[in-house]
Amino acid sequence: MLNFPCLDIARIATSEAVQSKGYGTAMIEKIFEVAHTVNERYITLEALIEHYHWYSKRNFIPLIEEEAIQSNQHGLVFMMADLYDEKLVDLYFDE
Ligand SMILES: CC(C)(COP(=O)(O)OP(=O)(O)OC[C@H]1O[C@@H](n2cnc3c(N)ncnc32)[C@H](O)[C@@H]1OP(=O)(O)O)[C@@H](O)C(=O)NCCC(=O)NCCS
């Protein structure tokens, strides 16, 4: 059992009528912005396996590698984004 502080996304959805217009991406970007603001390093979620690549393209990686291929028994893949920005930290200490 993993135990670390994170911002966990419980549900995210775009109305069917307006999918594939960038709203989902905008929501994810806003969530990343909120996580940065509250100084949260990790964002986690359980993605439906059919949306695995959508999240992969948005900086999420699977916590359990095998789930990316076959999901868990609920059709979900536990994924995480790490907001640690090495360049930003270096810049902070350089200045
Ligand atoms: C997963 C979900 C939230 C994505 O939302 P969305 O608003 O359709 O997401 P986006 O429009 O940002 O991205 C979808 C695709 O639209 C296309 N797209 C994005 N912006 C676009 C734009 N401005 N114009 C045209 N196409 C665009 C892209 O191909 C993109 O996919 P890709 O970048 O992975 O190739 C949505 O499919 C959904 O609500 N599904 C039902 C509920 C669900 O399954 N939730 C997730 C549980 S894990």
Automatic annotation (TrEMBL):
InterPro entries: Acyl_CoA_acyltransferase. This is N-acetyltransferase domain-containing protein. It comes from Savagea serpentis. The lineage of its organism: Bacteria, Bacillati, Bacillota, Bacilli, Bacillales.
